[in-house]
Specification:
Shape: globular
Low-confidence stretches: 179-188, 214-222
Number of helices: 8
Largest sheet: 7 strands, mixed
Order of helices and strands: EHEHHEEEHEHEHHH
Distance between the termini: 32 Å
Mean pLDDT: 86
Number of strands: 7
Radius of gyration: 18 Å
Structural class: alpha+beta
Strand order of the largest sheet: 2-3-4-5-6-1-7
């Protein structure tokens, strides 16, 4: 993170309490489900990655400063170019209205930032992300820091040691579910789980698109992501 958009340096932060969103615990409220199924937003993925980072970095009334500086922007862009970063974009009337982006490592997805310039845009983007991760075999969604917004969608906090044990389990090919929120650990900082070595089994980012084009769900309408009712059905099954 940077102290501001013009700060030339980058600081590495390791929170003592880490926020994750269990992929089987996404909270799909009635109002959010309605917003998803209505297809009010056109949802795409990896279509405007640089624009999404720029939108997340732009100042807003509730956030006059940003932690995203040119060094961070360039780093994410490079990760995107080599296939280790993704974005989910929500469009309204042809304009980018919100979304999110993050980094992948194996079957772990690290949400970096999300933004909303229209009501429900970031929530819809996160719902599409969770559905995509579930369909593609991901096992961990890291949200970094808890916020009331994320908590309302199902995010929880776990201790850093528990988080590392869960992450290492996922990278080693496990499901990362051995430790829950507040679970105790043994054997040191990572609960006795050895630090894995690459290569790591990767999730399939495009699996959801194939599902959306399946006969049971009708034809993909070239939105870049399946229709909202497909997303709602997947999330209803996992929540």
């Amino acid at each position: 993170m940077a102290d501001g958009a013009d700060d030339p340096s980058v600081h590495w932060v390791e929170p003592r309490l880490r926020a994750i969103l269990p992929l089987d615990g996404f909270h799909l409220s009635h109002s959010l489900k309605k917003a998803i199924v209505s297809d009010r937003f056109r949802v795409t993925t990896d279509t405007a990655f640089a624009d999404m980072v720029a939108l997340c970095a732009a100042p807003a009334d509730d956030r006059p400063t940003t932690w995203i500086n040119p060094v961070i922007k360039a780093s994410y862009d490079r990760l995107f170019q080599i296939g280790h970063a993704h974005s989910v974009e929500c469009w309204l009337d042809g304009e980018l209205a919100g979304g999110l982006y993050g980094v992948t490592l194996g079957r772990a997805f690290f949400g970096e930032s999300m933004v909303s310039r229209a009501r429900d845009a970031s929530k819809v983007a996160l719902a599409h992300l969770v559905a995509r991760l579930v369909a593609g075999g991901w096992k961990l969604l890291d949200c970094q820091f808890i916020t009331p917004h994320l908590a309302s969608l199902g995010a929880i906090e776990i201790r850093q040691a528990d988080y590392l044990a869960r992450l290492y389990s996922v990278l080693a090919g496990g499901d990362g579910a051995a430790l829950g929120a507040g679970a105790g650990t043994t054997g040191g900082a990572t609960g006795g789980v050895a630090v894995p070595s690459p290569p790591f089994v990767a999730g399939d980012w495009g699996a959801l698109d194939a599902l959306g084009a399946a006969p049971d769900f009708g034809t993909d309408r070239a939105t870049g992501s399946p229709p909202g009712y497909v997303i709602a059905q997947l999330l209803t099954k996992t929540s």
